[in-house]
UniProtKB/TrEMBL annotation:
<dbReference type="InterPro" id="IPR008658">
    <property type="entry name" value="KAP3"/>
</dbReference>
<dbReference type="InterPro" id="IPR000225">
    <property type="entry name" value="Armadillo"/>
</dbReference>
<dbReference type="GO" id="GO:0019894">
    <property type="term" value="F:kinesin binding"/>
</dbReference>
<feature type="region of interest" description="Disordered">
    <location>
        <begin position="730"/>
        <end position="776"/>
    </location>
</feature>
<dbReference type="GO" id="GO:0044782">
    <property type="term" value="P:cilium organization"/>
</dbReference>
<dbReference type="Pfam" id="PF05804">
    <property type="entry name" value="KAP"/>
</dbReference>
<dbReference type="GO" id="GO:0035869">
    <property type="term" value="C:ciliary transition zone"/>
</dbReference>
<feature type="repeat" description="ARM">
    <location>
        <begin position="587"/>
        <end position="631"/>
    </location>
</feature>
<protein>
    <submittedName>
        <fullName>Kinesin-associated protein 3b</fullName>
    </submittedName>
</protein>
<dbReference type="GO" id="GO:0016939">
    <property type="term" value="C:kinesin II complex"/>
</dbReference>
<dbReference type="GO" id="GO:0005930">
    <property type="term" value="C:axoneme"/>
</dbReference>
<dbReference type="InterPro" id="IPR016024">
    <property type="entry name" value="ARM-type_fold"/>
</dbReference>
<dbReference type="GO" id="GO:0007018">
    <property type="term" value="P:microtubule-based movement"/>
</dbReference>
<dbReference type="InterPro" id="IPR011989">
    <property type="entry name" value="ARM-like"/>
</dbReference>
Length: 776
């Protein structure tokens, strides 16, 4: 169709159905618009139809409203409703008047971008009409007041999604809006707010993001934010100067009035500025759906600007800022930017707060940040721990608070701090409120972490705490709850002795039919009970555990974790002389050596198996079996110089005891120690002798005839090698490795009731052993 052929445009509106709005006090009018282009002769050249709807909001409708009068007014003012439908309108209004609000507690939700409410200055007497867009555009070329009016009228159209596609096709209007914003945003906050709001309406729909990007509105919003934040700092400085002046001369009424005037002006400016910031940030948040656009924002320092805005008091603005930070925090680079500034410090003042949405989104942001070790430390330093603990009693925020506290509890140095809050009583209450239901993963994981600290374990056991936990764990056979109990059992002192009453119950769980994870935790709990008065022989016999141990020691017979727990358990019961003898007769020692061969690359297995040998050489019945009938001493000599310090420590202690009772193995041990500690010197001597063709200085065992080369010359150590176990309280002292104080992990070689290595890496769960500068 040629444009000159078109002469007339015929537009016809056809009324449709009426209905009530599902949630608001409003009527929905469905109608159809038919547009036809006519030629010179009046013939139809092109036609199109479009279905539309209009929402008539009835804010004044209440129980006292005259429905008949309101219906007449609606029909008179809305040309889309035919007068014949007056009775139908009246009936719908009557329904709205009597409709009850949805019962029950409304679901909490975070404010969404499309919920952006109208702001001060948007009110206008004239009703916007989509057919008058060109007139509104012309106003954008007039003075500032006319520009604001034109932009406001276009905004009223843009707030109705039905009009967006039509506005999209009007490039003149959008181009004019973008130009005015670019040129005049510094001249009028109202104008900038209104125009950005127009483009925000488009940004609420992903398909229009290209349009907003085309006019570079996002970059303009970034500039607006940066400028407004600088203005805010200037206002603050100016206000503080006036405040100080008043404080210096409190009797000067003129200064006081000037300060009050300045403060009122500041408050008015602040309201308008925060309206502008809200609209600009909402638009940027919508555009940030595209990660490439988000990266551009990050390069323009969006994180620092958002963190700076956290000082404001406007809760709606804060909801938006924190939501934006939460979205950004899922990327490492943005999280690092937040770590560089005082993000956590600024967020801490928002916890707790009365605004439910703000508190919820703040907790979600803190949860994202709590994956970083350094930021977790800051959370504790700014006092968030007791604040978060107090939220455990709030049903709406309990889950988020617990997840953050769980992350904090991962760091061993913070575990003890929970003992000084009411956290543990609340957690115990939650545990017992579950009845026979499965405990939430977050709750039980948090409890497992806290139980690894001695002070917390004592609080957990107060009253009937341990009894209730054991009863529940044994009834439900819950492996995670048993893991918590296992952590409690590792602490020396009163908590450990409480377990004497439950040894039989725990031993009864160790059967091939039970779930392996559950059995692992039961075994681990029993293995922690290094109590001198416990009759392990009776336990092993009554519950027939020796055959179970022997079966599980076979490589591949079960998961490695279960086999390892069996080895640890054997190490614990071997402290008892009669138990050790019973195990030796059952043929468990060869099975352990076979397992050592199979698991020689696993430090954890090696360490715990060597510890079993260490325990068994204390008892005469098992010492002879270890020394005479197995190759265990040879394995121990090979492991004397293992890379793992814990393995070396246990090996040295065990070999020292063997050397005291067997001269031959004592000489072999001394020879190996001599060669190791003098290896460089021996290599040098041997190489020189080879070059000069001289015979060796010593024979095969000649160096062993020179006790002064091996033993110290201070007269403390006898050259005979008859050393009692008491001397080797520090296993490294005799090796010339300097002083390694035994401390809590040292071995009491005289009694056999040593604190066994908790792991193959030499730490116990309640010790501060880690390098806390990096994330675990």
């Amino acid at each position: 169709m040629q444009s000159e052929d078109a002469r007339y445009l015929k537009r016809k509106v056809k009324g449709g159905s009426l209905d009530v709005h599902p949630t608001e006090k409003a009527l929905i009018v469905q109608y159809e618009v038919e547009a036809t282009i006519l030629g010179e002769t009046g013939d139809e050249m092109l036609g199109d139809r479009k279905k539309c709807q209009k929402i008539i909001r009835l804010k004044s409708l209440n129980t006292n409203t005259d429905v008949a009068a309101l219906a007449r007014k609606v029909v008179e003012e809305c040309k889309l409703i035919h007068p014949s439908k007056l009775s139908e309108v009246e009936q719908l209004l009557f329904y709205l008047q009597n409709r009850k609000k949805a019962s029950g507690k409304a679901e909490k939700r975070v404010v969404k971008p499309r919920d952006l409410t109208p702001f001060e200055g948007m009110e206008i007497d004239e009703e916007a009409n989509i057919n008058k867009v060109e007139e509104y555009v012309e106003l954008l070329y007039e003075g500032m007041e006319e520009k604001v009016k034109g932009a406001t009228l276009i905004l009223h159209l843009a707030r109705n999604p039905v009009n967006l596609e039509e506005l999209l096709e009007n490039e003149t209007a959008l181009g004019a809006l973008a130009r005015v914003l670019r040129e005049d945003w510094k001249q009028s906050v109202e104008l900038a707010t209104t125009i950005i709001y127009v483009f925000f309406c488009f940004s609420s729909f992903s398909q229009f993001h290209g349009l907003v990007t085309h006019y570079k509105i996002g970059a303009l919003c970034m500039n607006v934010m940066e400028h407004e934040l600088k203005r805010y700092d200037l206002w603050q400085d100016e206000l503080q100067k006036k405040t100080r002046t008043c404080e210096d001369d409190p009797d000067n009424q003129a200064l006081r009035k000037e300060h009050e005037k300045a403060f009122k002006k500041y408050q008015g400016l602040l309201v308008k500025q925060e309206q502008l910031l809200r609209v600009a940030l909402y638009l940027l948040l919508n555009l940030a759906e595209d990660t490439r656009t988000e990266l551009k924002m990050r390069n323009k320092n969006i994180v620092h600007m958002l963190v700076k805005t956290l000082d404001r008091e406007n809760e709606e603005l804060l909801v938006l800022v924190v939501s934006f930070l939460k979205k950004l925090s899922i990327f490492l680079e943005n999280k690092n930017d937040m770590a560089e500034v005082d993000t956590v410090e600024r967020l801490s003042r928002l916890v707790p707060c009365e605004h439910e949405d703000l508190l919820n989104i703040t907790l979600r942001l803190l949860l994202n940040l709590s994956f970083d070790t350094g930021l977790r430390i800051k959370m504790v330093q700014v006092g968030l721990l007791p604040k978060l603990t107090s939220l455990l009693g709030d049903e709406n925020h309990k889950q988020m608070a617990m997840c953050i506290l769980y992350h904090i509890s991962v760091d061993d140095r913070f575990k003890s701090m929970f003992a000084y809050t009411d956290c543990i009583p609340q957690l115990m209450k939650m545990l017992f409120e579950h009845g026979e239901e499965r405990i939430d993963a977050e709750l039980i994981s948090f409890c497992i972490n806290l139980a690894a600290n001695k002070k917390n374990a004592q609080l957990i056991c107060e009253g009937n705490g341990l009894k209730m936990l054991m009863k529940r764990a044994l009834k439900l056979k819950d492996p995670l709850l048993m893991k918590m109990i296992r952590n409690i059992s590792q602490h020396d002192g009163p908590p450990k002795h409480l377990f004497i009453d439950y040894v039989g119950d725990l031993a009864a769980q160790i059967t091939p039919d039970e779930n392996e994870e559950y059995v692992i935790e039961c075994l681990g709990t029993l293995a922690n009970l290094t109590i001198a008065d416990l009759d392990w022989e009776l336990v092993l016999k009554e519950y027939n555990l020796v055959p179970y141990f022997k079966d599980r020691l076979k490589p591949g017979s079960a998961e490695d974790d279960l086999i390892l727990e069996v080895v640890i358990m054997i190490g614990t019961v071997s402290m008892d002389d009669s138990c050790a003898a019973m195990l030796a007769k059952s043929g468990i020692i060869p099975a352990i050596i076979e397992l050592l061969n199979a698991q020689q690359e696993d430090d954890e297995f090696v360490c715990q198996i060597v510890y079993v040998f260490y325990q068994m050489v204390f008892h005469q019945a098992t010492r002879e079996v270890i020394i005479k009938e197995t190759q265990a001493p040879a394995y121990l000599i090979d492991l004397m110089h293992d890379k793992n310090a814990e393995i070396r420590k246990v090996c040295d202690n065990t070999l020292d005891i063997i050397a005291e009772y067997d001269e031959e193995w004592g000489r072999k041990t001394q020879r190996e120690k001599f060669r190791w500690h003098n290896s460089q010197w021996l290599e040098m001597v041997e190489s020189r002798q080879m070059e000069e063709g001289e015979p060796f200085m010593y024979g095969e065992d000649g160096e062993m005839d020179r006790p002064d080369l091996f033993y110290s010359t201070d007269g403390i150590t006898p050259a005979s090698g008859a050393v009692s176990p008491d001397f080797f309280s520090d296993p490294y002292a005799q090796n010339g490795d300097g002083q390694h104080g035994g401390g809590a992990d040292g071995f009491d070689l005289t009694t056999g009731t040593s604190s066994r290595p908790a792991t193959g890496f030499g730490f116990r769960p309640d010790e501060q052993f880690y390098d806390y500068t990096s994330s675990r």
